[in-house]
Specification:
Order of helices and strands: HHHHHHHHHHHHHHHHHHHHHHEHEEHEE
Number of helices: 24
Strand order of the largest sheet: 2-1-3-5-4
Number of strands: 5
Structural class: alpha/beta
Length: about 500
């Protein structure tokens, strides 16, 4: 059965579709408290803007369009994400077919994406913008490889589409087309693809997609880059050789952490053939090697330039995504008989799928056993019901996007605002003709006594001339938690006419 399922891209896609249906079902049966990125999408789906903050807007635009049609629900948040991940696998398989010229190997490469934890597990756990980046990177690889192999106008337009989507998915994608250009320079035939007049059509498509956000970015560059710079900041580490050394070590560790599992799985499945193939190659493997090296060199320069001592594995997603195709291309170039290795590799696919599903479920239902709570363990629905027993709000003012997104999911028809978004202050209060619910998050100790309004939040309310009334707190047990482990929200009501 596994042999048939991985014989063609179409059959492999059917297996993957069933796998993602299971992922959707699992998330829908778990408690409907939102992960951090899910909550941001829930909150931001109220607005169609050229920019939303530190992350580019592609995923936000997609989520806004879906919610505008279907309304906000858990399904409206979960299903689109899994469709994007499915398309990531699908376009990856199509990219593999262009490079490998073998449908069966391309299907195996498509399934082999599940060996990358950043794709198979971390993207499912949360990470909406990273999901968009993975989709765009896979689409780019397909468009790029197809343009090299079949340089029709459709291939160039596809390349431009992928580039545009990638640039408004995550800013680090900008290194990918540059690395691709560097990778093809040694080959005269492929250099002609870059000089072809049709590349102008690709550039035009990319510019049209990027232009609205680029105009916004020009006036908001500091705002858009602030979060990334904070994450990369070296803290109190003094400038000099020590900080540079720590940055390089973090960079190397990130590469090892990203590549270790796929290397181990390919080595276990293909054994000596995997290691014998490392010395072989052709122009496709050479191009992929240069593409990865150029991208990693770009990341290293950024690390050194910013003085960062932190490099996260997911920052490498678009640049090392090609690894499974690269491994298969190396073994193919060596002219080895891969049948035994493929027989050993295929059973690993459903095992890895099952491991991902079990891990995603156990981190929630087993939270009390491991004493580590995930955001879906938070009793948001019960907290919302407890706070609104007396009345339903006409407006919710939340302390942050996590609280705001969760409140919006519980009250889909009620507008939700946070301080300084979507505009400075809290202007939506002035138009509210009903009771206003103010909600903020308690401290991690999650007791009622800790649910005190944050100073920044209370200052924003005071500046908007909003006087909270009936201040209270509610603390409820985590889903699947230990007895006595609670999560708290502080809340207050403002009645119409009270200022």
């Amino acid at each position: 059965m596994l042999n048939r399922a991985t014989r063609t891209i179409k059959t492999a896609a059917l297996l993957l579709a069933a796998y993602f249906v299971l992922n959707i079902a699992l998330r829908l049966v778990l408690p409907h408290a939102l992960e951090l990125d899910e909550a941001e999408q829930s909150f931001f789906s109220q607005y169609l803007l050229a920019g939303y903050g530190p992350q580019p807007p592609f995923y936000n635009w997609m989520q806004y369009a879906i919610v505008s049609v279907t309304g906000l629900s858990m399904g409206a948040l979960v299903i689109p994400k899994n469709i994007l991940l499915f398309l990531c696998y699908l376009f990856y398989g199509l990219a593999g077919r262009e490079a490998l010229k073998d449908e069966k190997l391309a299907a195996v490469g498509m399934m082999a994406l599940i060996t990358l934890p950043q794709v198979s597990y971390m993207a499912q756990q949360d990470l909406t913008h990273t999901t968009a980046l993975l989709f765009a990177s896979s689409l780019f690889l397909y468009g790029f490889f197809r343009t090299l192999e079949r340089p029709g106008i459709g291939s160039y337009l596809l390349l431009g589409l992928a580039t545009g989507i990638g640039l408004i998915s995550k800013y680090n994608f900008a290194l990918m087309p540059v690395a691709a250009l560097i990778a093809v320079l040694p080959y005269a035939e492929w250099r002609r693809r870059v000089l072809d007049w049709r590349i102008l059509a690709a550039i035009a498509v990319a510019l049209i997609i990027v232009l609205p956000h680029a105009i916004w970015l020009r006036s908001n560059l500091e705002f858009a880059s602030s979060d990334t710079l904070v994450k990369m900041a070296a803290g109190n580490e003094p400038a000099g050789a020590l900080r540079i050394g720590k940055g390089i070590v973090a960079f190397v560790i990130a590469i090892i952490a990203f590549a270790a599992l796929p290397i181990a799985i390919f080595a276990a499945a293909f054994r000596r053939n995997f290691f014998r193939a490392l010395a072989s190659g052709n122009r496709w493997t050479g191009m992929m090697e240069r593409m990865m090296l150029a991208s990693l060199a770009g990341i290293l320069l950024i690390v050194l330039f910013t003085g960062s001592t932190t490099v996260r594995e997911r920052w490498l997603d678009p640049f090392l995504l090609v690894l499974p195709i690269y491994f298969l291309a190396k073994m193919q170039a060596a002219g080895l008989d891969l049948s035994a290795g493929l027989r050993r590799f295929r059973p690993l696919v459903p095992v890895l799928m099952a491991c991902v599903l079990v891990a995603l479920g156990f981190r929630v239902v087993g939270a009390g056993l491991i004493d580590t709570y995930s955001r879906p363990n938070v009793p948001m629905a019960d907290l919302a019901r407890g706070m609104t027993r007396q009345a339903e709000p006409a407006l919710v003012i939340a302390s942050d996007t996590y609280v705001g997104g969760n409140m919006r999911l519980q009250f889909p028809g009620v507008p939700v605002v946070i301080p300084d978004f979507p505009a400075p202050g809290i202007p939506a209060y002035a138009t509210s003709d009903g009771p206003v619910l103010i909600v903020w998050r308690g401290k991690k100790t999650a007791t009622v006594a800790d649910a005190v309004m944050p100073e920044r939040f209370s200052s924003a309310l005071a500046a908007a001339d909003i006087a909270p009334q009936e201040i209270a707190a509610l603390s409820l047990p985590y889903h699947f938690g230990r007895q006595g482990d609670n999560f708290a929200l502080g809340y207050a009501w403002v009645r119409p006419g009270a200022r």
